[in-house]
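Support request, please re-run this one:
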Amino acid sequence: MENYFEIVKTAVKAIDSKRGLDIEVIKVSDLTIITDYFVIATTTSNTQLKAIADEIEFKLSEQGIEPHHIEGRTSEWICLDYTGVVIHVLLNKGRDFYQIERLWDDGEKIDISEFVIKEDR
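Re-run finished. Output below.
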């Protein structure tokens, strides 16, 4: 079994490297058997959406970690399922509409500040 938090860190860094916005990580292992962590990020365009999803896949593949399942390759929301980590990358209007993080409000919000580059964007 992979170390799920290592997947989280790699995904967050990949999202940040492609300038994904509003990255949130929620630990839900105490709330559901579906997964241990949700990573949620916003993009501003379909091009950025695809670039972020591709970068996540690439960086994790370099570590020998392949997704269990991927949904939404041609939509405004891509979901990458790495079993213990489910990564949602959405266009900003979808993020506002679905508000995934509100569904998991009881989960533990994880501080990711050490994994993202601090700069004015």
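The first helix runs from residue 4 to 17. Helices lie at 4-17, 46-62, 92-98, 100-103.
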